[in-house]
Specification:
Blueprint: E1 2-3, E2 8-11, E3 14-17, E4 21-22, H1 32-39, H2 42-47, H3 55-58, H4 60-65, H5 115-118, H6 123-131, H7 137-155, E5 158-161, H8 163-178, E6 190-194, H9 221-228, E7 232-237, E8 247-248, E9 251-252, E10 254-255, E11 258-262, H10 270-275, E12 282-286, H11 292-298, E13 301-302, E14 324-329, H12 332-342, E15 369-372, H13 378-386, E16 390-393, H14 400-418, H15 420-424, H16 437-442, H17 456-470
Helix pairs in contact: 7-8, 12-17
Region (Disordered): 471-505
Protein name: Ligase
Keywords: Ligase
Length: 505
Amino acid sequence: MYVFLGYNVPHRTGSFYIHYVQDRGNLDPGNHGQCLKKMKSRCEFELLDATFLNESKALFEEYLANRKLVASDNGGLQNPSVLIFNSGWSNEKRQHAVETFKYPSVLSVTRPDRDDDIAFMSILDLAELIHSKQITSEELTGIFLKRLKRYGSILESVVTVTEELAYNQAKKTDGQLSQGVDLGPLHGIPCGLKDIIAVPHYKATWGSVSFKDQVLDIEAWVYKRLKAAGVVLVAKLVTGSLAYDDIWFGGRTRNPWNIEEYSTGSSAGPAPCTSAGLVPFAIGSETAGSMTYPAARCGVTALRPTFGTVDRTGVMSISESLDKLGPFCRSAADCAIVLDAIRGKDPDDLSSRDIGFDDPFTVDISKLTVGYLKDAEMEVVHVLQSKGVNMVPFELNYTVDSVQGILNFTMDVDMLAHFDEWQRSGQDDQYEAQDQWPTELRRARVIPAAQRARGKLIQEALALAMAYQSVTDHHKQQPPMDDIGPNPNDANPPKVVIPPRLLRG
């Protein structure tokens, strides 16, 4: 049997993908003769929807001759595709340096008596506690490390607790602050990273049994940006296996609001860990819903930025033309603060840009017109209307399925180029959910790639979300963690019965 797999072909007038190898086959030239004879049969052209070609036009020999141009390393960390989405706004010349946002002032913040309440405070409130010397970064780090150890295994949301690194970074922060060095509101704030983001000396498992012991000597650019802002890394958080859904080699990640529900994915760990107060914020990623779905399920605020806003160097790739990194937080204001720290261009990522944003904290939302669908959450619509936003109902003139189909084809082909060796070597037989990547990668075909993005939407969306959250308290609610976690003072805690993992259809 023959399938189209991982060969990227640039074209002068556009871009397209052609993928061809023998399934589980050997790519040595000596095996190509019989392979080509079979591929040139009429039935094979029909299977490929290419009956308009004849043997002289198919050029299979050229495809095979260039087959080794495909990256042989898994994960897309080396030899990135030459086919990267490049939008019109990416060529705009920035006239001025990108300015940081002007954060709102926070006054009269008092340290709560309970550590559990501290764990659910906003980034600005935690920063005020640190800067007013009501708490040290080391103390704050200890609070979140304790919660990660207590609840992480229950939620199946934590891969690695980076305790030694965290305490070293927190002590460094406290020393800097005592000397008057202030790196901003994230200075001394703990965070977690989705486990597709490389951190030296720590595992980057990508959620897969195939890579569960992998340690990469790479420092992801987004982690560098966070370190420059003084952030303390406390944990590597679960990603669905190879960034797909919420199933990983250690189980299936759960929703802290309902332990019998799963978090969805693939940013399966960042969402519940933020929701449950195991971290003040986390960095996740999205190719097609991997931030929006778990954020909605677990009741947190996530910002999936415009493509190119946040650099992806050192991050496992599904699709260079679709992957985005962004923050999971408790509020839109927190998302704006984190985005401000991690945005910007890296020369090693051709898609990254210095994108100028108006300060979301100063947007006049009364001048905005926002459309909503008939199944929208009407509470949000009414709140924004009361804030002066012009809310307009509308209907889509296309089906979601049609758009999803195009996106899936593009994503699957890019993913295949990044994990061609993994599948050809038979490691996909051990994949955690056989109806996911193993099946999808076998379906890859010739696909055009296209995407449209608008940077201006980010600051407007943040402003609207902050307006809504200013008069509601949904984002301040705490899930019933005492009902799902063991009592740390109980020497013999009862065993928690967790429902068996069930695959969704």
